[in-house]
Design goal:
This protein is α/β, with parallel strands linked by helices. The chain folds into two domains: about 180 residues, 3-Layer(aba) Sandwich (D-Maltodextrin-Binding Protein, domain 2), CATH 3.40.190.10; about 130 residues, D-Maltodextrin-Binding Protein, domain 2 (3-Layer(aba) Sandwich). The protein is built from twelve helices and ten strands. Strands 1, 2, 3, 4, 5, 6, 7, 8, 9 and 10 form a ten-stranded mixed beta sheet that branches. Helix 1 packs across helix 3, helix 4 packs across helix 5 and helix 9 crosses helix 11. The longest helix is centred in the last third of the chain and has 19 residues. It starts with a helix and ends with a helix. The relative contact order is 0.16. InterPro entries: TRAP_TAXI. This is TAXI family TRAP transporter solute-binding subunit. Pfam families: NMT1_3. Keywords: Signal.
Amino acid sequence: MTRLHGLLIQAIAILALAAGFASPATAQSVERNILTGGPTGTYIQFGNDMSRMAAKCGITLNVRESAGSLENFLGVRNRPQTQFGIVQSDVLEYMRTFASSDPAIARAIFGVRIAFPLYNEEVHILARREIGSLEDLTGKRVAVGVEDSGTFLTASLVLDLAGVRPAERVTIDADTSLARLIEGSIDAFFYVAGAPTKIFQSPEIDGAALHLLPITNPTLAAVYVPSRIEAGTYAFQTEGIDVVAVKAVLMTYEYEPGRNAYHRESCRSVSDLSSIVLTNFKELQASGHPKWKQVDLNDIPPGWEIGNCVNEGLSETYQLQCAAPVPAAAPEPESIESQANQAYRARICAAVGC
């Protein structure tokens, strides 16, 4: 068992014990919750965008901060009243790969389903200016995210696949990583998020001292999606760089409406949000986080299934019960045309078109 595998099993045990899957007895107690990420990441902005669309229909979707992808995945599986979580695709791939040989992982993924594939999120590595490449992180102090985050898993896989051996892998969150990089107690840190992400918009980042590392290792290019962070994406970044990316997906649980009131109302919550995202998709692309423009709803990760409650909400016959009042249509202005002219216009339109 690798160190990463062991840490994953430990995280599964801790988070499962802390959450303890339970179904409230009454439908009246059911809340709608989505696990996202930290306050400066792209996940939480996507959660806020979906919550805003739901509010237009009188539906409350609570956006909850979290450590990231692994907590979100296990939260959907284990945490009561948590119907949604945003997760990185390499977390999904890692879990699926080991499910056949590890009962703990098999239990962790049981019942978890895809709601929507979302966008590609870039692997950011912010480093001291004198560090020129991923390979230069060998022997350095590198922050890799907290242990139950997607950043931690991705950073661990990237370093291992590229054969890079830092002197120390520091497990701290992104905000702490940035502060410690600026003060000089670490040499670089990983953060996986859709560009542009808020943490790298901090005015404290000095482009003369810090920069984003390119990620062009051929082994990684075969495992991850090649991507690019264009010049000017962040104020300190004057040149475009080639990196790799992972797919973010919205996860849910396979609720069974016939099981009990909790499952029935949770399935309704999943169906409602699915309908809201589909019917407001163009508005999300126009007014939400810029990454909505890159969302491909057809790009389902291999080996994973769409939830039945999701497909129910996407049905043409699905009736979304909005609590918000629908504004009455404005009355048509009274015509000042004579009845004769109206009759004429009607005949002309019927004969030759208007």
